[in-house]
UniProtKB/TrEMBL annotation:
Pfam families: CBU_0592
Species the sequence originates in: Pseudarthrobacter chlorophenolicus (strain ATCC 700700 / DSM 12829 / CIP 107037 / JCM 12360 / KCTC 9906 / NCIMB 13794 / A6)
Name this protein carries in UniProt: CBU-0592-like domain-containing protein
InterPro entries reported in the protein's UniProt record: CBU_0592-like
UniProt keyword Glycosyltransferase present: no
Length: 155
């Protein structure tokens, strides 16, 4: 019987991690299949945690299970088709999959980055920083009429 509780725990881990992986990689949208995998995985974790007396884990997974159950009930009440995994809301300018983040950093002009100059000065004595100016990337200074790719964030 103990083996059954261990299988439940590992099965729950596989269900939740698989759901998270597929949504994070963009292979699946956070819809009914995602919520169902979370519901099944959390239920299995509740069984395993109760067997081992891991009550903080049980409490967390009860909440996880309830969140998934409520999300599934709301999707059903919204009347979506059974096979649809489309998100309920798609905000303009926000990618429709997770795991995509635009990172924009300024470039520093001058012959050397200031960190390198400060290290070099440590061996040579006192260092006085010269003023440097940050240059914005071309994407940030593009004309307003420039077309924006789908999923790109305009700044």
């Amino acid at each position: 019987m103990e083996l059954l509780w261990e299988i439940a725990g590992w099965g729950g881990a596989v269900a939740i991690l698989s759901a998270y992986l597929t949504v994070s990689m963009g292979w699946l949208k956070a819809g009914k299949a995602f919520q169902t995998a979370n519901l099944v995985g959390a239920s299995a974790f509740i069984i395993n945690g109760a067997f081992h007396g891991a009550w903080p884990s049980v409490a967390t997974n009860v909440a996880w299970c309830l969140i998934s159950a409520v999300a599934l009930l709301r999707m059903r009440a919204a009347g979506g088709s059974a096979g649809s995994d489309a998100p309920a809301v798609q905000l303009p300018g926000v990618p429709d999959t997770t795991g995509q983040l635009a990172v924009i950093e300024p470039r520093v002009s001058g012959p050397h980055p200031i960190e390198t100059r400060a290290v070099e000065a440590g061996a040579a004595g006192t260092y006085y920083a010269e003023p440097h100016t940050a240059e914005p990337y071309a994407a940030c200074t593009a004309p307003a009429a420039a077309p924006v790719r789908q999923g790109a964030v305009a700044i």
